[in-house]
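S1.2 Input.
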Amino acid sequence: MNTVQTPSAQAEAAAERFALRVATRLSGGADDLPYDISERLRASRMQALAKRKKVTVPARIAAPVIVNGGGSATLGRGGEGGGWWSTLVSAVPLMALVVGLVVINIAQDEDSANDLAEVDAALLTDDLPPAAYADPGFVQFLKTSAQSN
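S1.3 Output.
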């Protein structure tokens, strides 16, 4: 079984580890202090240990943890029955999605066809023949005429 700690137990365990590191660090320099200061520190340490609350971290949680996330949305029939009506109602959002995608596809196709028709109409109604646009000399002519203007 997995060991699970609650956030408060984890915080208490982290605080305990921090306290042990600080105590070790402080005890390392205690040998160089005078006798009266070391005695006051020892007395203070004993008082702090007496007032310290005991932390009991459970090694394991015996009871299983059950997480209830609420209901879930399904497209099929659940366990409650309802017959054909619930099937129909649950299929409506799916049908709306499909119809929306088809409408978007048709609209995009029409827009691209209209854009191509506008370009074709502009080419055919222009004073130049369509073959002039494919001529490499015509591109050079357009560049030089644009620079002179």
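S1.4 Remarks. The two ends are 83 Å apart (CA to CA).
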